Amino acid sequence: xxxxxxxxxxxxxxxxxxxxxxxxxxxxxxxxxxxxxxxxxxxxxxxxxxxxxxxxxxxxxxxxxxxxxxxxxxxxxxxxxxxxxxxxxxxxxxxxxxxxxxxxxxxxxxxxxxxxxxxxxxxxxxxxxxxxxxxxxxxxxxxxxxxxxxxxxxxxxxxxxxxxxxxxxxxxxxxxxxxxxxxxxxxxxxxxxxxx
Length: 196
What we know:
This protein has helices at residues 2-18, 24-42, 70-84, 156-195; strands spanning 53-60, 66-67, 89-96, 100-102, 105-117, 123-137, 140-149. The chain is of the alpha+beta class and 196 residues long. It has 2 domains: 26-150, Nuclear Transport Factor 2, Chain: A (Roll), CATH 3.10.450.50; 153-196.
């Protein structure tokens, strides 16, 4: 009797481990959108995202640029590619947290790992935080709003700009010091010439 009771308790305790969460299919559908986003960005094929844009749609990109259509998002990425330069690449890996699903609405969030290689060979690695609100329409999850952000001060682009500014400033300071040294040398030489 004790064995049978123990066995029943063990089986009952283990059932949650075998049962799939009731919203697991929804989480899987959201993970497919994440994989499609990575593919669309990494292969420069943003049209893949069209079926997943709600109407209306609103997005804030990591540079604070606002977009509200796929065409505006394409223009944003075209501008980014110009900054990266010919031959440059942009790769993203999306790391989502578990989404919060509330009926036909979902809140997805997570981080990304981004790698930019410019046309002139410079490499930048950084991360972003993102949130996304989705609505299920006709059996398909669609993005209503998305926002990405990156560290505005400690990101590699700011660090690179500060480094360039410091090098320029050092060059200007060296030129000024050289000019002052030449001027002082000229003054000393002139004074010696008038004394002699």
